[in-house]
Amino acid sequence: MDAAHKITLLAANAFGVPVRFDAVHVEGIRTLEQADVGFAERLGYRVKLLGLAKRQGAGMELRVHPTLLADDHLLAQVHGSMNAVLVKSDAAGLTMYYGAGAGAEQTASAVIADLVDVARVAGSALHDRVPHLAFQPQSVVPLPVAPMADLVCRHYLRLDVADVQQTAARALSMLDEGGVPVERMERFAHADGDGANALVVLTQPAAQARITAVVARLERLPGVLGSVRQLRMETLH
User: Fold this and answer.
1) How far apart are CA 77 and CA 216, in angstroms?
2) How many angstroms separate the CA atoms of 204 and 156, rounded?
3) Closest to 154 measured CA to CA, from 236, 57, 72
4) Which of 54, 70, 151, 197 has its CA 20 to 30 A from that of 145?
5) pLDDT for position 137
């Protein structure tokens, strides 16, 4: 089961909504570059592929994408084949469930658990069956999923530039004009030694629609080389 399916099932359990795989915004790690992983670590962050389900007002967020987390966050300590689920509840606050997500015994355990569920359903009368997700889907009203354009969070932006001083000033001005407040800007030299520099911008919370519009403008600046790399940031407090 991939990350999109896992997070949708988690949302169904947490919020009592029918499973909706098509509503999950999914970005994988295929376009993630080693340079951004290294720059993030130098700024005190780790990049993790997260699946997030959040209640927001009358609706909810469902998304999967690489995310910057502070390097002292619990989820930033999850490595290798280990998986973790962080849950924030009204009474218990933050709790985390941690364990192996791959391996012969772990996979066998999951398969056997599914077979046991199938056997229980097949051997029970209809009125005695417990729904797999502990609720009857037809008895609840689905929560609307907020569009990604409305998502508000902090962002990591990386611009490869030829002239650091001139491009930095113009980029900061453009971000300000676009309504994207900047928390921090740092300059890094690329490890491949091709002479290009990277300007890394950490923004304050801003709507995804604003970020998308500003990035399109930044990519048209004469001093910007190639596309602007962007990653979302989360605190998960």
Assistant:
1) 34
2) 10
3) 236
4) 70
5) 63
- pLDDT given at position 23: 85
Alpha-carbon distance 191 to 41, whole Å?
Answer: 14
Side chain identity, residue 60? M
Chain mean pLDDT for the chain = 87
**What percent of the chain has a predicted confidence (pLDDT) above 70?**
86
Task: Please name which of 12, 14, 5, 2 lies closest in space to residue 86, comparing C-alpha atoms.
Answer: 14
The CA radius of gyration of the chain, in Å to the nearest whole number, is 21
Domain that holds residue 122: 1-146
Q: What residues act catalytically?
A: 6
DSSP calls for 49-77: EEEEEEEETTEEEEEEEEEEEETTSGGGG
Which of 226, 87, 107 has the alpha carbon at shortest distance from 167? 226
* Per-residue pLDDT tens over the stretch 211-230: 999 999 999 999 999 999 99
Co-location of 131 and 163 in the same domain = no
Closest CA to 11 of 146, 205, 117, 109: 146
Average pLDDT of the residues in 183-190 = 94
Number of domains observed in the structure of the chain: 2
Q: What is the CATH number of the domain that holds 53?
A: 3.30.360.10
Please provide residue 206's backbone torsions phi and psi, each rounded to the nearest 5 degrees.
-150, 150
Query: What is the rounded average pLDDT of the residues 58-70?
Result: 92
Res 58: pLDDT: 80
Tell me: do 140 and 152 sit in the same domain.
no
SS3 label, residue 145: strand
As to burial, measured by CB atoms within 10 angstroms (0-12 exposed, 13-18 middle, 19+ buried), residue 235 is: exposed
